[in-house]
Design a protein that fits this description.
Elements: H1 3-9, H2 18-27, E1 29-33, E2 38-40, E3 48-54, E4 57-61, E5 69-74, E6 79-80, H3 82-87, E7 94-97, E8 101-107, H4 108-117, H5 119-143
Antiparallel strand pairs: 1-8, 2-7, 3-6, 3-8, 4-5, 4-7
Helix pairs in contact: 1-2, 4-5
Length: about 140
């Protein structure tokens, strides 16, 4: 499957046309992670957005602490890192590969450049981002 087709399956990009998907795919690179490897670390600098092509990963808050909480597990076409790309804040959670995994990775510089040159892309992504934020808020409320 092409990177363009992979991006088309991601809910965040579901409203984008083929031309927009192709532009994003051309900016992305593929990275491989071994089972147990940390992909991103909570508190780290958020400069990349990830789409899981193959494998499984877990998203954990407070990794390694007595208060560790597993937020979710994702599989192929799952994505993470979008908040850090947009707000520049540190990573909100740690993501670890549960099995050997392949990710499509987009840097914040390429992502923001695409949004600036194609503002309709940003508008198409807003409902998906809003739903994800609401879902995370609900999960955090359940932790209390």
């Amino acid at each position: 499957m092409s990177h363009e087709d992979t991006l088309a399956k991601v809910p965040l990009f579901s409203q984008l046309g083929r031309r927009d998907l192709r532009q994003l795919a051309n900016s992305a690179v593929e990275r491989h992670y071994k089972a147990g490897e940390t992909i991103v670390e909570e508190g780290g600098r958020a400069v990349t957005f990830f789409v899981l092509i193959e494998g499984r990963a877990e998203i954990v808050r407070g990794a390694g602490s007595p208060h560790q909480h597993r937020l979710t597990e994702i599989g192929p076409d799952g994505f993470f890192g979008e908040m850090g790309l947009l707000d520049g804040e540190p990573r909100a959670a740690t993501v670890r590969a549960l099995e050997d995994s392949r990710c499509l990775v987009l840097s914040c510089w390429d992502f923001i450049a695409e949004l600036r040159s194609n503002p309709h892309m940003a508008v198409a992504m807003l409902p998906v981002l809003s739903r994800r934020i609401r879902e995370l808020d609900r999960q955090l409320d359940e932790m209390d």
